[in-house]
Amino acid sequence: MIMRPTKEVVLIAVLFLVGITSGLDLLWDLSHGAPFSHVFKEALVVVLAIVLIVWILYEQRQQLAQIQKLKTELAQSEQQRGKANSYILSARKQLSEVISKQFDEWNLTQSEKEVGWLLLKGFSLKEIAAIRDTLEKTVRQQASSIYKKSQLSGRHAFSAWFIEDLL
Q: Does the pTM exceed 0.85?
C-alpha cells in the first residue's frame, strides 16, 4: 500500500524549501551589499516560513493529543459498556424490543425507524443526515412524519413517550 503524504507534510516541505532558498539568497544579498529594503523583505520571508512551520507542527501535535485522548475515552467507554450488569443488558434489550414494537404499531417505514432510533439516541438532524448520507431536509421530513404518525408534538414528546414513566 502506497502512503500519500498529508497536506501538512507537503506544506511543511514547501515552506522549508522556501525558507532555505530565501535564507541562502539573503546570505548572498548580504555579502554583495544589497539594499536594506530588499534584505528586510528576504528576512521577512525566512521568518514567516519558520513561524508557519512551527505553527503547523504545533497544531499537528495538538490534534494528535486530542485524537489520543478521544481514543482513550472511547476505550474506557467500551470497558464500562462491557462491565454492564446482566440486569442492565436485559433492561436495554427489553426497552429496544418495546420501542421496535411501538414503531411497528405506528406504521413507520424502515427509514423512519432508523431516523427514530437516531433521534432517541440524541443525534441532531444534521448528524442524522450525515450518518444516513442524506439531506438534512429529508431527515426533517422523516422526523415530521414520525411525529405525525405517533401523534406527538415533536422531538421532546417523542423521546419522553418512551422514558417518561421510568423515573
A: no
